[in-house]
């Protein structure tokens, strides 16, 4: 037994001399010091990685059975659902997994809003994260087109027409992207290639860089206190604990709960109540008939509501054009968040009343836009979605002012174990 | 913060309600039980005998139906296979080609495999129950749920001769079968799901104890 | 002392919890992998396409080869002439396994003719060496060979699909499950008992 363990140690040393296994494990796990007060908002990063791994595996399997052609795409989904053994659960894992991935990522991003995780020195972590979010939206869009149901088709058509709105080159660009004069076989094939190869490769790289950049500067925490400011004689943060084993065992609980929710959805609500698979996607694409209510999947609806909210002609450009500007701006503005926030403190816990109230209103408006994007255009009074859109932007654009003017509380130096600040 | 949670909860609530609601027409509850094999079998015979004159169900294999609904293959072969189907593994075809349908009715009769997923079971049931006499309609019948329906009411005879209870039971069976046909794995996954959930709940216990065990020393460090 | 024993209890408890969690995760992982593994089985469509085939024998001239497809494999059907049958019986010393002692055929075809009826041969046209399709030679050519000859590596089989000695193929050609529903109707892909 001891000989065997001696042999395996020898092998480990042999490998480790050539490939830094032990060092990597130490840097990123057993000697990566995370603040000891991370709360439930900090679960979602790990859960997002879990969801992404599930997407990769189930996705690779689906490519084995799916046919990306105009004539067979829809039928090949039914082939997976009926003829391929256990194919239905692999498809549901992918379809429900997409929404769960977005849920995790939206909460993960919102955590950044709450505790100022985008602030110095984590700007790059935030920027890479935003690129990941953007790519996820592209990935989600391409993926939704692949079954080529009627909602796939009309969703793709609406997005393609948005490209057509770009002045001068728009129409030619749209035809070039489609590879045809309508959403046809050529479009489907290239969307498939993007969905299964190009975007996932960039996503994997992006997620890798996101984690590496985070581990370079260390995790933020709900107090926004820099734990590296107080270290022991070995340079270990006094308020930090090794990620492994403490946070690995810690994160297992939400992981199991997440998987539980995931499988409850798969076995009992695989269509997500019409939000994950919209009913019109159960009939094949029909280029002559739009579904009665055309709405994107839930994770796009806030931006979709903004697009619809813009109805004015301005500077000689029509409303379509300004709608495009608005949704592009709505996403781009997120990239500038690290530089818009001028508060002396990171965490909302120590920010002033205006920041707190404004974030609350902003959250309400963002979710409100999400609801409006699902509902028919005439569901709410006309002023609602433009107002929400304006508030969405005002939150960011006024941030440099109100974060500087408001009175903040003093941030403590150290973290206590119950997660509160400790005044010294 | 509590106020925000409340507002969000209200909005999410309205979203969920939206998923179930249809814009204007009130639907009857189908109240079907997909685990009731007797009902599914009756529905299957109704579907094959009545609907397939015009509609296909091109993703549904007879063999799957025989296995899931526990109808013997001989029974299916001799009583169900119609319109060009020769093998038990064939899918449910229709007597009418889409082009012929388009000539007769103006629209091709849609394939019905996924209709229950597309419209929802309540819609299907309400539609089947929603035919009424209307001399101005092309085929003498109109529909409460789908106005100016292009489909001749093939079950008019049944509706007139049967009692209301018998007829609505039939339509419920038919709806139930269409719900099953739209996703044949549905009864199985609903049965199996609970074992997965129980397993994960069991898994939660050691995982939770493990976390508590390790974190005891963190809290002790205070 | 007290502290040490405390630590020991603690360690034991940890090991137990880690063991339990890991075993449960292993069970869960196996369950989660199951659909991925099962999805590689032949699909219902593939199984339907691989269903037994029915062949009408009335049209086949005696002494010629008919090739049909079952599960993507060529099925050779030969209506053997009296000479072919007689020839097969003389060969025994040149054959590797003249009595068909192995499992290359169903029980009902374990006889000198390797068939249910002596005049109807049903074999898979897949060389038991590396899977090429042996050619049917019913006329003596320059080598003086008749039977099945595999062009890939020169394996030779007689009119019953029995392999000759001294060729690369190790076993006789396989006889697929088959039966006759009437005198002239052959079903390949299923035995008579399994059918009933």
Write the layout of secondary structure elements.
The complex is a heterotrimer of chains A (424), B (222) and C (196).
Chain A: H1 2-18, H2 21-30, E1 33-35, H3 44-63, H4 73-82, H5 87-115, H6 123-145, H7 150-164, H8 170-178, H9 185-217, E2 240-242, H10 243-268, H11 301-309, H12 319-335, H13 337-340, H14 353-374, H15 384-397, H16 399-405, E3 414-415, E4 421-422
Antiparallel strand pairs in A: 1-2, 3-4
Helix pairs in contact in A: 3-5, 4-5, 5-6, 5-10, 6-7, 6-9, 7-8, 11-12, 11-14, 11-15, 14-15
Chain B: H1 2-20, H2 37-50, E1 57-61, H3 62-68, H4 73-79, E2 91-92, H5 98-105, H6 115-119, H7 121-129, E3 131-133, E4 141-143, H8 156-161, H9 164-182, H10 186-221
Antiparallel strand pairs in B: 1-2, 3-4
Helix pairs in contact in B: 2-9, 7-9
Chain C: H1 2-38, H2 44-49, E1 53-56, E2 65-70, E3 73-79, H3 82-90, E4 120-124, E5 135-137, E6 147-149, E7 156-157, E8 178-182, E9 185-188, H4 192-195
Antiparallel strand pairs in C: 1-9, 2-3, 3-4, 5-6, 6-7, 8-9
Work out the strand percent of chain C.
15-25%
Outline the low-pLDDT stretches of chain A: none
SS content category of chain A: mainly alpha
Q: Indicate the structural class of chain C.
A: alpha+beta
Question: Major sheet of chain C: size, sense and barrel closure?
Answer: 3 strands, antiparallel
Q: What is the residue-averaged pLDDT of chain A?
A: 91
Question: How many runs of DSSP E, i.e. beta strands of chain C?
Answer: 9
Biggest interface found: A-B, 44 and 50 residues
Major sheet strand order of chain C: 1-9-8
What does it look like?
- Chain A contains 16 helices and four strands.
- With 424 residues, chain A is mainly α.
- Chain A has a two-stranded antiparallel ribbon with strand order 1-2. In chain A, strands 3-4 form a two-stranded antiparallel ribbon.
- In chain A, β3 (414-415) and β4 form a beta hairpin.
- Chain B is mostly helical and 222 residues long.
- Chain B contains ten helices and four strands.
- A two-stranded antiparallel ribbon of chain B has the order 1-2. A two-stranded antiparallel sheet of chain B has the order 3-4.
- In chain B, β3 (131-133) and β4 (141-143) form a beta hairpin.
- Chain B is extended, with a radius of gyration of 24 Å.
- Chain C has helices at residues 2-38, 44-49, 82-90, 192-195; strands at residues 53-56, 65-70, 73-79, 120-124, 135-137, 147-149, 156-157, 178-182, 185-188.
- Chain C starts with a helix and ends with a helix.
- The chains are: A mainly alpha (424), B mainly alpha (222), C alpha+beta (196).
- Chain B binds chain C through residues 61, 63-64, 87, 89, 196, 199-200, 202-203, 206-207, 209-210, 213-214, and chain C through 10, 13-14, 17-18, 20-21, 24-25, 27-28, 31, 44, 47-48, 51.
